[in-house]
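In the design runs reported in the main text, the only information available to the sequence generator was the tokenized backbone. The following block is the verbatim input for one such run; it is reproduced so that readers can re-run the procedure and compare outputs position by position.
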């Protein structure tokens, strides 16, 4: 080992290599990967996203289908609202699974089916509109009345989703009401467009 010319002490050698993690068979491998962070808030985020998206989607579809020319057919409209909600939930669940795919035993595991089933809030948010249209199809009320009720319910639901999201983020009640009011603007926009296009 060479001496340090300044003090006669031996110069320090190169730093030793960091220890490597042992593999399953006891052999050393590369540095261990950091554990994947747990997304504890993900279920709540998907619940709030599904609620807002489902309410807006159902309102927009019901308003568009209700303004078609020809004889009113609420059963047809209800089927299309439900089919669109299912397709949107499946598409978002699939995209979410691909974006958060995991590597298990060297193979990519996207967990598509659990991710798609986790989109149930979107279908739940669209259910009031489907039920209102089915009631009109059964002759309990008119399709126009079903549309008005569904738009009002979805707008109120949007306020609730915004309020809940703000409370989950730890905001005060005034800020929560502002967040709910911002979501209500989405519902009011659909109502205004529905009135103007009639």
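Verbatim output:
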């Amino acid at each position: 080992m060479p001496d340090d010319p300044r003090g006669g002490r031996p110069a320090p050698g190169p730093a030793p290599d960091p220890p490597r993690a042992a593999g399953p068979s006891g052999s050393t491998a590369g540095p261990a990967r950091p554990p994947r962070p747990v997304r504890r808030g993900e279920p709540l985020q998907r619940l709030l996203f599904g609620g807002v998206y489902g309410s807006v989607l159902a309102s927009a579809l019901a308003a568009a289908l209700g303004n078609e020319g020809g004889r009113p057919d609420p059963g047809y409209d209800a089927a299309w609202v439900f089919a669109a909600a299912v397709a949107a939930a499946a598409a978002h669940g699939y995209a979410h699974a691909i974006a958060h795919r995991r590597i298990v035993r060297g193979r990519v595991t996207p967990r598509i089916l659990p991710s798609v089933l986790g989109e149930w809030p979107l279908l739940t948010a669209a259910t009031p509109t489907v039920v209102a249209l089915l009631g009109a199809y059964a002759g309990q009320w008119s399709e126009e009345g079903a549309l008005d009720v569904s738009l009002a319910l979805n707008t109120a639901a949007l306020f609730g989703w915004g309020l809940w999201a703000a409370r989950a983020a730890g905001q005060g009640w005034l800020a929560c009401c502002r967040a709910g009011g911002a979501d209500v603007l989405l519902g009011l926009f659909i109502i205004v467009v529905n009135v103007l296009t009639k």
